[in-house]
Amino acid sequence: MRLRRPSPDDAAEVWRLVRDSRALDLNSPYAYLLLCSHFRATCLLAEDRGRVEGAVLGYAPPEDPTAFFVWQIAVADRARGRGIARQLLVGALAAATPSPRWLEATVTPDNTASLALFRSVARALGARFQCGPHFPAELFPDSHAEEHRIRIGPLATTAVDELADQLELTLATHPGSSDAANHRPATSNETGGTAMTGDRP
Ligand SMILES: CC(C)(COP(=O)(O)OP(=O)(O)OC[C@H]1O[C@@H](n2cnc3c(N)ncnc32)[C@H](O)[C@@H]1OP(=O)(O)O)[C@@H](O)C(=O)NCCC(=O)NCCS
User: Fold this and answer.
1) Kind of pairing, strands 128-135 and 147-153?
2) Does residue 7 fall inside a structural domain?
3) What per-residue confidence (pLDDT) applies to 199?
4) Strand 43-48 and strand 2-4: pairing?
5) What is the DSSP code string of 27-88?
């Protein structure tokens, strides 16, 4: 398994991953194209034997660049329960420059898997987990449920790096890659953990 940045030719696969999750709002294919191009430096895919098994789509909110906001995270049914979502979140935090102080997301209150995921990552990072009402249902023109905001932090860079090490995520930079500036120095991955690369080979 490896973590890598998406590129525009991944957008259709990411759209299918979100569609098949049956839990996330499915946005237009064009929205995923934008994420896989303009926002590719803050998104990550988990890929196993050429198949995309998971994705985290995020960005630093323009009004609070100290945060990393997870817009959507999904893991394919067949690959759930193997720690892939946790790797995606920790990988995204570890690769972000500057290091985020906060991990944020919004979630519908009935999404127990998502809440468990974020609580578990907060615990592993030794950071505070807060969750409360954010976007009320009235703001949505359809029958969408309200969204609660999750805020985890403040995050210690050392805690993120240590967890990335523990999960054996290799934060490798690709010399000459346009992504190089978005990675912190490589951590150890001598035991066959999850490699993290900037681009397709
Ligand atoms: C939520 C989701 C991304 C989790 O992916 P995953 O790869 O199976 O999660 P992980 O294996 O990394 O699990 C991380 C933690 O979450 C917990 N968790 C994951 N799914 C869970 C579930 N269905 N019920 C309870 N806990 C769950 C795990 O037990 C683990 O906690 P632990 O380390 O304390 O044991 C996946 O279920 C999914 O794609 N769901 C549909 C899309 C979605 O709801 N996305 C989130 C909205 S922002």
Assistant:
1) antiparallel
2) yes
3) 52
4) antiparallel
5) --HHHHHHHTTTTGGGEEEEEETTEEEEEEEEE--TT-TTEEEEEEEEE-GGGTTSSHHHHH
Question: For residue range 52-95, what is the model confidence (pLDDT) as tens digits?
Answer: 999 999 999 999 999 999 999 999 999 999 999 999 999 999 99
Q: Residue 106 is which amino acid?
A: T
To the nearest whole percent, how much of the chain has pLDDT over 90?
83
| Secondary structure (3-state) at 159 | helix
Does the C-beta of 80 come closer than 6 Å to ligand 1?
yes
Q: Nearest CA to 172 among 155, 148, 189?
A: 189
Q: Please check whether residue 75 lies inside any domain of the structure.
A: yes
Q: What value does the mean pLDDT of the chain take?
A: 89
Check residue 192 and give its pLDDT: 55
CB-based contacts of 176, cutoff 8 Å, min separation 6: none
Ligand 1 site, residue 73, Cβ cutoff 6 A: yes
| CATH number (domain holding residue 121) | 3.40.630.30
- Ligand 1 pocket test, candidate residues 80, 106, 115, most atoms within 8 A of CB: 80
For ligand 1, whether the C-beta of 155 sits within 6 Å is: no
Summarised one tens digit per residue, pLDDT across range 148-195 is: 999 999 999 999 999 999 999 974 444 444 453 344 544 334 445 787
Q: How many domains does the chain have?
A: 1
